[in-house]
Amino acid sequence: MIDNSKSKIAVIGSGSWATAMIKMLTDSTLSKEIFWWVRKPEDVTFIRTYKHNPSYLSAVEVKVQPENISSDVREIVSQCDIVVLNTPAAYLKSALEGLIASDFKDKTVVSAIKGIIPDENQIVGEYLRSQYDIPLEKIVVIGGPCHAEEVAQEKLSYLTFASSTKHEANAVAALFASRYINTIISDDVIGIEYGAVLKNIYALAGGICHGLGYGDNFQAVLISNAIREMDYFVEALAPQHRDIKTSAYLGDLLVTAYSQFSRNRTFGNMIGKGYTVQSAQLEMNMVAEGYYASACIQSVIQRFELRMPICNMVFQVLYNHQSASAEVTKLAKDFT
């Protein structure tokens, strides 16, 4: 059970979303000590010296004690009772390299990752349970809608905290709440994790269509079909009572599909305009989770024999090198 009066929190990751979470935690009114794992030693030195992340959200002032910032993940995790994972899903294993199950014993582990671990093809909660023997009741999942860039500007945003244990979700949520962060509690751990994975694929689909020249009218139909497809998927894998129209599902989908800050939409837009996957990745210099998620979700679709036309379109374009124009034309005939 978390005691918020003396929480020590580790944030694992140093990208824009991790930097935004550092800001949220330091701006929250609850007293806590924050530790930050930053991948590159040279970035650690820079942040300690200048109190800014040189690579992401550089305008954000970092209010973490310099001695609490390190590139030694074991040192950071060992000092904390709450560990917040905030790397791209594809890089989580390398970030946690060297850690074993005993390093997480009795700790609450929070996933702010919106992707699937590629080799294992598992959502983060499943990976944590199988790899590190972390009990389900000690895992909290954070859902959106919330873009790092708007957190940096202190624009009112909402986060959903999902756990099988209501107390755990409430305790973690309280650590993030502030005048510009409102929190919502849920018990749909698996549904919110999969929803966060799928919305990146759907945002990528929206970007592809935009790059091809489709307008707002078509995008509205695409996203309305996407939320039904998401509902069908999460109900097939994790049946329980949920309202797919709430912010953790529909809200997160909408902001990722439409926002100027959405890297998945940007990535898809480049693909629609004719970029290769490799050239789009190089030009963005940021991870679009939807790219990796597409292959992982396709495997799940095949295993459970699900009908997911939007996800299938994205997979065909990204991995089977099919014509984006031809695939979207076929998809459009399927819409209702």
Automatic annotation (TrEMBL):
GO terms for molecular function: glycerol-3-phosphate dehydrogenase (NADP+) activity; NAD binding. NAD(+) binds at residues 148, 263. The keyword Iron does not apply. Keywords: Lipid biosynthesis, Lipid metabolism, NAD, Oxidoreductase, Phospholipid biosynthesis, Phospholipid metabolism. Residues 8-167 form the Glycerol-3-phosphate dehydrogenase NAD-dependent N-terminal domain. InterPro entries: 6-PGluconate_DH-like_C_sf, 6PGD_dom2, G3P_DH_NAD-dep, G3P_DH_NAD-dep_C, G3P_DH_NAD-dep_N, NAD(P)-bd_dom_sf. One of its GO terms (cellular component) is cytosol. It catalyses: sn-glycerol 3-phosphate + NADP(+) = dihydroxyacetone phosphate + NADPH + H(+). Its EC number is 1.1.1.94. Residues 188-326 form the Glycerol-3-phosphate dehydrogenase NAD-dependent C-terminal domain. Pfam families: NAD_Gly3P_dh_C, NAD_Gly3P_dh_N. The active site is at residue 199. SUPFAM superfamilies: 6-phosphogluconate dehydrogenase C-terminal domain-like, NAD(P)-binding Rossmann-fold domains. Substrate binds at residues 114, 263-264. Transmembrane segments: none annotated. GO terms for biological process: carbohydrate metabolic process; glycerol-3-phosphate catabolic process; phospholipid biosynthetic process. NCBIfam families: PRK00094.1-2 (NF000940), PRK00094.1-4 (NF000942). Belongs to the NAD-dependent glycerol-3-phosphate dehydrogenase family. PANTHER family: GLYCEROL-3-PHOSPHATE DEHYDROGENASE, GLYCEROL-3-PHOSPHATE DEHYDROGENASE [NAD(+)] 2, CHLOROPLASTIC. This is Glycerol-3-phosphate dehydrogenase.
